[in-house]
Amino acid sequence: MSVDAPPLPDVLAGPLLRRLTPERLVMWLVASRPLELALMLHPEGQPPRRLTLSDERLQRIAVGEHAWLHLIDVALATPLPTGILIAYDLKVRDDTGERGIAEWAPHLLHEEASYPSFVLAERHHRLLHGSCRKPHHDGPDGLAHADTWLAGRYRQPQEWPAWLLLTGDQVYADDVAGPMLVAIHALIARLGLFDEALSGATVPDSQALYRDAATYYRREALLPDTESNSALRDRFFGGVRKPIFTTANAHNHLITFAEVIAMYLLAWSPVPWRLIETAPPPLDDEWQQRFQTERAIIGRFVEGLPACARLLAHLPTLMIFDDHDVTDDWNLTADWEQIAYGNPFSRRIIGNALLAYLLCQGWGNDPDRLAELTAHSATLMEQARQNAGWLPAEEQDALLQRLLRFQGWEYRIPGAPPLLVLDTRTRRWRSERHPTRPSGLMDWEALIELQEGMLDAPSAIIVSPAPMFGVKLIEAVQRLFALAGKPLLVDAENWMAHRGAASVMLNIFRHSRTPGNYVILSGDVHYSFAYDIELRHRQSGPRLWQITSSGIKNTFPITLLDWFDRLNRWLYAPRSPLNWFTKRRRLAIHPRDPDLAKAGERLWNGCGMGLVDFDNEGCPSNIRHLDARGFEVGFPPARDAKSQSVCRRADDGLA
């Protein structure tokens, strides 16, 4: 750090509200030093409470010389009330006294508020959900818009969502703008984030990586130039243009643990941006022009970060990974896994991103279940502190190997109805026909565990990062490419791509002891839609709703999606011969038309967040998309669905 650099602020990011209940509060933040904290609670109409955060209530893990993750985990002997505003404050204590959030993070306060607040919902009556937040996508940020929406209801606690669900691709570790990577490296230096040795690369360690001429826009050049690494290069750094759906840009793929940690800080907080400079690196004319274009977009992203941080400080938030949190097409096929995990360099890249996910996302979802992994991580980071800021390579690889083998990223939130968040990335059902064909998104054992978690519940909300029921034309195109042995070209990842996984999933829905009402919340695809679904030949249900919201800050190519949308409606119309031969014979699917869409459109393409209201039976009573351009899009019930608004109740014999 330069001797002329101003002192670092105590808090760099957060607090983020994580798993909150009347009996337990979990919060996450990042500080420049290990903090002594006190938590003040101000339930509306009740006396305030002061909670000193002892070591039993406050865990700290260093990830750099001036970067400490803090997890506040407080069990409450006297439960907090539900349905009212509860203001809170985090007092940072030092030799000069105490300072509250209004002093060290005034951007977290709504207008005329003295503190941030939260509401503990009695049941899961409303959920805000979304996925796919890419900083350099040229569009508005759905998180910032959701903060504006919440501000308009600040004094109406009954209007607040029970949870904010981030259902995948909270960061893009594999698709990084040049200015963002420059900011990442500047923040690494400013905070002294830990270094590491690199095995299998042409550079020996992280410092050499940051200095290398190929570190911006040409990271594929850092792989060993051998024939055995050609497939690895294609998968991680090829920047392969995908002719059907998206353009993959992996030239700036994050590699080190420090890079991914810095990305989280820069994606969730405006504070780190105030500590660094982002001057352009030496680039040729082509990349220099691209850098300047991206720099303007990133500048607009940074302007919205105070609002994003404010939303995360007010709504309890649950998260789950999808592929871009780690790398594009993560575990897509058995062949992909064999190549990626067989190389020490790619294994390190994947493992570093998963370690950062554990500490920045997973930890707050389920601290008890992940306690052993976070304790192992804390030991590794303490060894780095004792080793002049370098992660010991052998110990780092041992932890990453443990993470890659871990089964337990999924979790369940009790309530009415129960909320089940799925891991569709690490427990996959590999194709038995050919290793290049797409794997099922969950294997047989994981699906059976899902079923057991829903037994005898009258209804359930399932969070599946990828839609269980998607757009048939797009799935058909994906299937054609998969059959041709090219699933990587089109992201051929959907529940129907693997016959075994699809069959078991449908059987779960048909089981007599699983719920009569299912709501499936998804993201991933960069457009939004809603389906009402019934099982054919079943007089008593169950009822299903597929509700997809994507992306928070990402969209599908407009013209291409318009063609897919209209062709899908024409090719798979009820009387179409193609539909007769390809229809899901056990399902009756009724798409909902967005109320602001043009005639013939069923897919909504716009950055924003999904908002779903639930009735007392756990069925969706109102489905909306909070479009970040400043308006709401409704998804009213499908006209061709019979009595679709009527839910299956316990007395239907399905509870």
How would you describe what is shown here?
- By secondary structure, this protein is of the alpha+beta class.
- Helices cover 29% and strands 20% of the residues.
- The protein has 17 helices and 24 strands.
- Strands 15-16-17-18-20-19-21 form a seven-stranded mixed sheet, with no helix packed on it. Strands 13-11-10-22-23-24 form a six-stranded mixed sheet. Strands 3, 4, 7, 8 and 9 form a five-stranded antiparallel sheet that branches.
- Strand 3 and strand 4 form a beta hairpin.
- Helix 10 packs across helix 11.
- The longest helix is centred in the middle third of the chain and has 22 residues.
- The chain is globular, with a radius of gyration of 24 Å.
- The C terminus is likely disordered.
Helix and strand layout, with pairings?
Elements: E1 11-21, E2 24-31, E3 36-43, E4 49-52, E5 58-64, E6 67-75, E7 85-94, E8 97-99, H1 101-104, E9 117-119, E10 126-130, H2 142-151, E11 163-166, H3 178-191, E12 195-196, H4 206-211, H5 230-237, H6 257-268, H7 285-303, H8 305-312, E13 317-319, H9 334-341, H10 344-365, H11 371-386, E14 390-391, H12 393-405, E15 411-413, E16 419-421, H13 444-452, E17 459-463, H14 472-483, H15 499-510, E18 517-522, E19 529-535, E20 543-548, H16 558-571, H17 577-582, E21 587-591, E22 608-614, E23 620-627, E24 631-634
Parallel strand pairs: 10-11, 11-13, 12-14, 16-17, 17-18, 18-20
Antiparallel strand pairs: 1-2, 2-6, 3-4, 3-7, 5-6, 7-8, 7-9, 10-22, 15-16, 19-20, 19-21, 22-23, 23-24
Helix pairs in contact: 2-8, 3-6, 6-10, 10-11, 10-12, 11-12, 13-15
